[in-house]
Amino acid sequence: MKSRRLNVSEDLQTTLRNQSRSSNLINAVENSDPIPTDLMIDILWRLSAKSIARCRCVSKHWASILGLPYFTELFLTKSSARPKLLFACEKDSELIFFSTPQPQNPDESSSSLAATYHMKIPFGGTCHVFSPIHGLSFIRDEQTFKLVSVICNTSTGQTLFLPKPKTRKRIYITSYFGYDPLGKRFKVLSMTERDGISNEHQVLTLGTKKPSWRMIECCIPHHPTSDGICINGVLYYQASVNISSSISMIVCFDVRSEKFNFIKVMEPFTRVRVATLVNYNGKLALVTSERSSYICGRRRRFEMWVLKDPEKHEWSKYVYELSHLWQCVLAEKLLNFVGVTGSTNEIVFMPVHPSDPFYVLYYSLERNTNRVVEIQGMGAFKGYLPRVHIFLDHVEDVKLMDYFKTS
Fold first, then answer.
1. What is the C-alpha separation between 316 and 312, in angstroms, rounded?
2. Rounded distance between C-alpha atoms, residue 28 and residue 221, angstroms
């Protein structure tokens, strides 16, 4: 009994000492001079996005500083210099987001990266995830006679459900995500289809107090056939003349002016829909492998067509062939084209059927060298092969979703 009383007494004394120290610390902070705002910004912008999210909970004063446009732009600039790979994994009606640093050393033949978990979003139908823009991901969840569109910021863990487009009846809707770098506005383009042709075209501008859909005109009858990619304020997607035709074109939507245009594709793509749209040094490019959207050990040759002059419909063709070593690496595996990295000028491939361990492959367009990068820590792959979306040059943005509701 003595021993127990002694322990209780010691615990009580320890607790009292800790309370005294905490009280002294609080008094010291309250009586000290406030830290200048510019010094706080200089310190806080060096933290990770998750650490900044925690710092927002310290006080209202800290939250107001971390919400300043100057601070969020400063953090976005820093993040742009350190791009990441963003992974969106579909599993059990959930979309799970991970990220890793983007490999920056083309000289390494192989390496591994640890994935960081961010958030998950439930979905109830067919999920389409579009390439993130300034840290924001656009998700289109196509449910039975219903469309749910969501904007999410994987850095802050926030989601924003968009209002439903105006439609006269339950018909198929296609949506795309774009950004106007001059006006600094995010916009969503949606279109309904009738008899295989895009019919009603609508635009939703984020960042307005009461975002609502606006009807716009499109003088180019077409049927969208691919995901979109936004480059320098222009949204591109592949389309055909109608749903039964295989004759292709590239539709261009200027996000700022909200005007449509189109680009003729070159001969290899006029009657097939197998190209992957990528951003190549700020220009639109189409990548294909012998008129296929994937590459394998036996099919090592692929082409990239770069749009040189949109007004003249001029393209430049580049042909690449992977080394024989890839036959050993790939074996019978199929790889999809993901895109081209902005910093190292490498084209990235991912397995059509993900495996554990999961990996991505890099091919240098300038050096004709390849490397394999293993992605570790993605628990979604254990005992399951989900559908995976990979996005290059992802940047973190700590801007809160309230920006879209009040600005």
1. 12
2. 70
DSSP 167: -
Contact 174, 188 (CB under 8 A): no
The torsion defined by the Cα of 344, 296, 129 and 343, in degrees rounded to 10, comes to: 0
- Give the global pTM: 0.84
Confidence check: pLDDT of 285 > 80:
yes
How many CA atoms lie less than 13 Å away from 330 in the CB half-sphere?
25
Return the sign of the alpha-carbon dihedral for residues 172, 254, 137, 53: negative
Structure tokens at 251: 């539709």
- Summarised one tens digit per residue, pLDDT across range 146-205 is 678 899 999 888 898 898 887 766 567 889 999 999 998 999 999 888 777 888 899 999
140 and 175 Cβ atoms separated by less than 8 Å: yes
State the Cα–Cα distance between residues 284 and 288, nearest whole angstrom. 14
Residue 168 φ then ψ, to 5°: -80, -25
| Residues 187 and 201: beta-carbon distance below 8 Å | no
Say how many C-beta atoms besides its own lie within 10 A of residue 289's C-beta.
21
Joined together, the tokens standing for residue 32 give 């000290």
Write down the residue that tokens 């063709």 correspond to: 317
What CA–CA distance (Å, rounded) separates 279 from 284?
Answer: 5
Please give the structure tokens belonging to residue 361.
């492959």
* CA dihedral for 229, 231, 236, 238, sign (positive or negative): negative
